[in-house]
Amino acid sequence: MNMTALPFDLQLLNTLAALLLLLSFAMLSQRRIVTLINLLAVQGALLCIATLLLAWRTGAGHLYLSAGLTLALKVIFLPWLLHRLIRKLGVYWDTEPLLNTTGTMLVGVLIVVFSFGLAQPISALASTATRNSIGIAVAVVLIAFLTMITRRKAMSQVVGFLSMENGLFFGAMSATYGMPMIVEFGVALDVLVAMLVLGVFFFQIREQFDSLDLQHLESLKEDQ
Amino acid sequence: MTQTLHSPLLLCLLLLTAWGIVGLAGLIRPASVAFAGRTLFPLGAVCGAAVAYVAATSLFAPAEQIVLSIGLPDLPVHLRLDSLSSAFLFLLGAAATGISIFAAGYFRRGEGTPPGLMCLQYHLFLASMGFVLLANDAYSFMLAWETMALSSYFLVTTQHRIPEIRSAGFLYLLIAHIGAIAILLSFGVMQGGSWQFTFDAMRAAQLDPAWATSAFLLALFGFGAKAGLVPMHVWLPEAHPAAPSPVSALMSGVMLKTALYGMLRVTFDLLGEPVWWWGLILLALGLFSALYGVIFAAAQTDMKRLLAYSSIENIGILFSGVGLAIVFAGTGMRIAASLALIAVLYHALNHAFMKSLLFLGTGAVLHATGERNLGRLGGLIHRMPWVAWLTLVGALAIAGLPPLNGFVSEWLLLQSFLFASEVPQAFVNMLLPLGAALLVLAAALAGYVMVKFFGVIFLGQPREAALQEAHDAGIAERAGLAWLAVGCVLLGLLPAQVIALLSRVIQPLGFSGLPLDDGSWWLLVPLPQRQISYAPLVFFAVILVVIVLTIAAVRFFYHQRVRRSDPWDCGFGRLNSRMQDTAEGFGQPIRHLFTPFFAMARELPSAFDPAPRYRVVIGDRIWRGLYLPLGRLVRRIADAVAWLQQGRISTYLLYSFVTLVTLLALML
Description:
The complex is a heterodimer. By secondary structure, chain A is mainly alpha-helical.
């Protein structure tokens, strides 16, 4: 695709998409949990800007609302909640991930290639201005998944989960200019509730095992 | 409104819904035995009688169907009432009436599940059996079928605090579900690529023979598991004794028949023309079940287990009749097939009445004495004359003695076996008479079993002192027993009328019915060209006359009075109630003759043992030879699969990730 042929706002949107992907990689490699949460907040902010841009471009009123929702939830509330949690729980570092950082990054690169290959036929069908970003959205989802797989601490996994939700949101926006309002509200509520429930779980897990390391959960498995 | 009243299907629907409402009403006062017993079960019985009445009238109406758009979108419920459904609905309604009347007086406080909840499960069970019979598409059929299995599972495990009952319930549920899967697969094959799961589409589908055969075999496995056909019978002798007696009566009398209905529906209706050799499989399984069931029944010492094995025998008889009908229909012998089918339907109806009657009789005995073990019963005819005499009717009927109903259907089935020599296939026409011989053997042994059943429980001396306090059943229980006993007698005395009705039932399956001789209402001539006939009323009259003459002869010519004296005691002089023939003793010749059938473990005392003990444990060879190895195999596979369960969250996430990526890659 010829970048310069695109109007300025779309170029901006593509840049934002690229930044989103970059942030995903940053999260994949980051082991400090405080930074991880900050990265998540930045990702949310980028998402919010992208939504605003798209709302301005298409004139779709409900996108403004969903941008506001993103701002309130993903940029302000959830990062604040997570920060509060890690302060209370005292976990600042994740241990060495199961696969070393270099290897994880390489797998991430493969995932991006796979995602773009996957998105090609969908992009050809979509009629939205943002169809080029679908590949990025899929990549963000899968890399977030990979983040969850390679981490040991429950907290990092939750951040991965939230990042995955960001990717899904971005995908829906690129493919169809956002989901119906009711669905979006539902998803936002789900994330909120999941976060609260997981928060409770953290405390329970720590109380049980004196640690948030998920390795301890393996002992819950039924013996043969 | 008038339109509604003229539509039997809508009326049936209404009545089945009424059953559901009666059941739900039980939840109003779940702990009250009196409310469920005095109000709800009698209401359920009224509904049952109404179902039987509507079904009987709809035998004369043409088939009708409706489509109700309830449930999931795009999956409306198709219902259809044709004469085959009507016949089985009649069976359901008529048997349920008697059982519900009995149940009104049966349930007591403190039997595990609270009475209100039990009332819900019971009526849900009835309604779901009705919907099984009405369903006209695979979805609603399976829905009703599974509701039936689940509600009966909860009824079986009423006394869920007892571990044996829980494991019996589990075995039942397991086999019911495996069977349901087979039925589901069979429907999947029968839709024949149209992806329409209505029965109409299945009727229209043209299957090639290999697929039709696989559909038939799957249906046989599925319905056979529900019916308790050997070797899928193992749940039956466990579940039937575990359930409360009215539930055992419903399960044995009615639920097993829904499996027969399914088999008939699939074979003769949905698959169109059956292939003749399918019948041989059914015939072999059926005859084996009949013999197996009756031999094990003879060896039992628990009265409900005995009846459960007797149900296996009767299911075997029914399925061998279906097999015979398939052989005849597949070789173009329509009249013979009609005769066999009518015999099957007749026997199904008979068995519903007589087996329910017997199970309810055991229920009354169980409540009066608290004993199921035959070795601790005896002499109850003096304490419980009502129960004893009404049960005797059922016992005579199931033993196949004229003029009761069991004789008629078995006689008809044997008559249809006589057509075997006209089957064009060589060997088959020579082997079929052997089948008839096996059937006669089973019928004769059934008589033996019933002598044991009735004799050990009701005749002789009470084997325990506690039996002296046994009291007769209450008025509701007597009424329920009497309803079923009257059914047995009427079905036995009016065979010509019943057969005329059953001829209508098989017409939609493409059979013409029998060329009945309508000349005399009291004489049954099923096939005029064969010159066979049976006149139950004459038979009955002769029996009555002989009895009256005997009594008269004894009274007036012999010694003219009733003398009471002790039986001859061989000079031993201290006869007590334990010196009677026991259940074990009575079954011993059968155990001896058919030793290869049993897995027996015996402990014989030596002659010098100061405290001699005799112990015999009778096991089922099929359970040890088939089910236990299967269970071990499943466990081994499960252990191997358990390797996947590492207990690590990242591993589970990896599974999801790999699945997701694979699915996405497949999309490319």
